[in-house]
UniProtKB/TrEMBL annotation:
Residues 118-187 form the Transport-associated OB type domain. Keywords: Cell membrane, Membrane, Translocase. PANTHER family: MALTODEXTRIN IMPORT ATP-BINDING PROTEIN MSMX, TREHALOSE IMPORT ATP-BINDING PROTEIN SUGC. Pfam families: TOBE_2. This is Transport-associated OB type 2 domain-containing protein.
């Protein structure tokens, strides 16, 4: 069965319910299905396999976990969800960056001397410890139970990033405050010449 953007006209709540019902029905029937979508969350949650199509080719396919967690290029990484791409200096199995020292989870740099490190915003958390990485709070925007905190790292060059955190945690943050940053789960390395179109 081919499903071409089947949930795009539904509001968020109904989309999630309908998607869950369709997945259950397809699993019960054993029907092989191809879902075409521009929604990363939908692609990653719907199937057993994901294939990324870019400019008429399929540069990467595999399990949702492998494509999201170990994207072949920075461009694929950005297509699969928000990323932070940082200039980095390699030290063995770790890198130094504006977010501090981070372990290397996957190395896609093909041995390049000059590298960029990719982490997902969901890997970054705020900390009171300023010794690893630190940033200036440039904005706080409340969205119901969460808040989006805009930050600019204090390193050179400064990197802008936004983190979604529980609204209660954001209440103590003020624009102009300096906070520590902690990265969990390691980075994926690419050649520093990697670009995102």
């Amino acid at each position: 069965m081919l499903l071409d953007e089947p949930f795009s006209a539904l509001d968020t709540g109904l989309r999630e319910q309908t998607r869950a019902a369709v997945i259950t029905a397809l699993e019960r029937s054993g029907t092989t299905t191809v879902l075409v979508t521009h929604d990363q969350e939908e692609a990653l949650s719907f199937g057993d396999g994901v294939a990324v199509m870019m400019r008429g080719s399929l540069p990467q396919s595999g399990s949702p976990e492998s494509v999201f967690g170990n994207p072949g290029t920075a461009e694929i990484a950005a297509l699969m969800g928000s990323i932070v791409l940082l200039p980095a200096v390699r030290f063995g199995n770790e890198i130094d960056s504006a977010l501090g020292r981070i372990s290397v989870r996957h190395d896609r740099s093909a041995g390049a001397e000059s590298v960029s490190a990719m982490v997902r915003p969901s890997q970054v958390s705020l900390s009171v410890d300023l010794t690893h990485g630190s940033a200036l709070v440039t904005g706080v925007r409340y969205i119901g139970p969460t808040a989006v905190v805009s930050l600019r790292t204090l390193g050179d060059p400064p990197i802008a990033l936004s983190l979604a955190i529980p609204a209660l945690q954001a209440q103590s943050l003020a624009v102009g405050a300096v906070v520590g940053l902690k990265v969990d789960g390691g980075a994926v390395l690419y050649s520093a010449s990697a670009t995102i179109h």
